[in-house]
Amino acid sequence: MADPITVHRVPAWTTLLGIALFGLVLFWLHHLLGQYHWRDILERVHAISDAKLLRAALLTCAGYLCLTLYDTLAVHFAGARAPYPRIALISFMAYAIGHNVGFNTFSGGAVRYRAYSALGLSAKQIATIIAFGTFTFFLGSGFLLGLSLLSNAGMSGSVLHVHAWLAVVAGTLLLAAVAAYLWLVCTRHAPLRFRRFEIPVPKPRIAISQLGVGCVDLLCAAGVLYVLLPAHASISFAAFAGVYLLALAAGAASNVPGGIGVFEFVLLLLLPGVPQDRLLGALVAYRAIYYFAPFLIALVLLGVHEIWVHRTRAVRSVRVARTFLSAVTPQAIAIAVFVAGAVLLFSGATPALDYRLAVLRDFVPLPVLELSHLLGSAVGVGLLVIAHGLYRRLHSAWWLTIWLLCAGIILSLLKGFDYEEAIILGVVVIALASARERFRRRASLIEQHYSGPWVVAFFLVLAAAGWLVLFAYRHVPYDNELWWQFAFHASAPRSLRALLFASVIAAAYALWRLLRPAPPPFSAPQEADFKLVAELIAAGDDTTANLAMLGDKNFLFNQDRTACIMFQSSGNSWVAMGDPIGPPQLGEALAWDFLEACDGMAVSPVFYQVTPQRLPLYIDLGLNLSKLGEEARVPLEAFSLEGAARADLRHAHRRAVREGAEFELVPRGGVAAILKDLRAVSDAWLTEKNTGEKRFSLGFFDERYIANFDVGVVRRNGAIVSFANLWRGGITELSVDLMRYNQAAPKGVIDFMLIECMLWGRAQGFKWFNLGMAPLSGLEEHALAPAWHKLGRMVQRYGETFYNFEGLRKYKEKFNPVWRPRYLAAPDGLAMAGALLDVTALISGGVRRVLRK
Question: Which of the 8 DSSP states describes residue 288?
Answer without folding.
Answer: I
